[in-house]
Amino acid sequence: MIWIKIKYRFYLYVHTFLFQLGFANRLLKNRFGERIIVFHGIDETGETKYNSRFHSVQFFEKFIQYVVANYNVISLEDFYAKKFKPNTLNIAITFDDGYLNNYKYAVPILEKYEVPATFFITTIQNKANYLWPDFLDLVSFYTSKNEIIFENNLYVKNKKKEFVFNGVSLKNRCKKLTFDELKSIFTIFEEEWEKIQKKPLEDYWQLMNDTQINLIAKNKLFTIGSHSYTHANLTMIPFEEAKFEILKGKEILETIGSKSIVEFAFPFGSYNLELVNYCRNIGFKRVLLVDYNSEKDQRIAALKSRFVMNPYVGFEMQILYLLKGKYV
Ligand SMILES: [Zn+2]
C-alpha cells in the first residue's frame, strides 16, 4: 500500500513537471472521456479556512480558459444526450448551493468565454438567507464559546474548531436532522452571526435572490436545477420529509424562473434509489450525485456522478486529477 502511494506521488511529481514544461497534451492524450464537474463557491482569494469549498476567481478564470482551449465543454443537457467529441475530454460544468458569489464572480467569466453551466440552487430563502452548513462553519470559526448544549448534549470545541459530542461533530449530527429539528443552532450562535454579518464575509454564506436566479434562468448559456429546499441530507431524514424537500425546491424554482426544472443534485451527494425514483416521477430528467453508491447504479441513465473540484490542489494537479477522473 505504501509503495503504491510512493509510486503514485512520484508519478504525479513527474507529470506535474512535464506539464509545466508544456508536454501536457502529449502526455495525457490517452486520458480522455467524460466528466461532469462540480464547483461550490468562488471568492476573491480562494479562502479555505472556513470550509473546503471555495476557489479563487483567478483560478476559476484560468481553469475556464484552459478547458475551453483544450477540451469540449458542453451543457448538461448535451452531456446527457452524449453530444461528445472523440479524442478529447468532454466536460459539463455545474455549481451547487446557489451562492451569490456564483452570480458575482463565475457568471461574468462563463459569459466572457461563452461556457454553458448549470446552477443547482437551494431554495431556502423564505426560511433563512444562508445554508445551515455555511452558518455552522462560520460561527464555529469565530465563536469564543468552547462548549454549547444542543439537544441536551454538551458539545465541546476541538482543535479543528468543530463542536463534538461523543465523537460526533455538530455538523454530522445536523446532517441527520430536518431543518426544523436543527434550527436551534441559529439561536445558540445568534450573537456570533450578528457579528459575522457585519464582516466582509458575505461571499461565504450569501445566497442568490430571486432576481439573480431569474437572470441566470433567462440566460441561454445557463440552466438552473434544484438542490433541494433546505439542504438537508435526504437519506438521513424521514422519507416523507425528503420527498417534500425535493418537491418544494422544484416548485419554488419553477415559480421564480417561470419554466420547468428538470435537473436535481442531491445535497451532500447523498442518495438512495427510492429518492431517485421519486425525482424521476415528479419530472426530473437529470439527477446528479457525487459518487455512485454501487456499480449497478451506473446503469440508470438519468443518474450521473460528478467530479468535485478541490481547492487544495494546484492548477496543474487539478487538471491531472480531472483527466484521471479521481483523486487517488
Ligand atoms: Zn450542496
From TrEMBL:
Superkingdom, natural source: Bacteria
Regions crossing the membrane: none
Signal peptide limits: none
One Pfam family of this chain: Polysacc_deac_1
InterPro entries referenced in this protein's UniProt entry, alphabetically: Glyco_hydro/deAcase_b/a-brl (IPR011330), NODB_dom (IPR002509), Polysacch_Deacetylase (IPR051398)
Predominant location: secreted
Alphabetized Gene3D superfamilies for the sequence: Glycoside hydrolase/deacetylase (3.20.20.370)
Keywords assigned by UniProt, alphabetized: Signal
NodB homology domain span: 89-328
Compartments, as annotated in UniProt: Secreted
Protein name: Polysaccharide deacetylase family protein
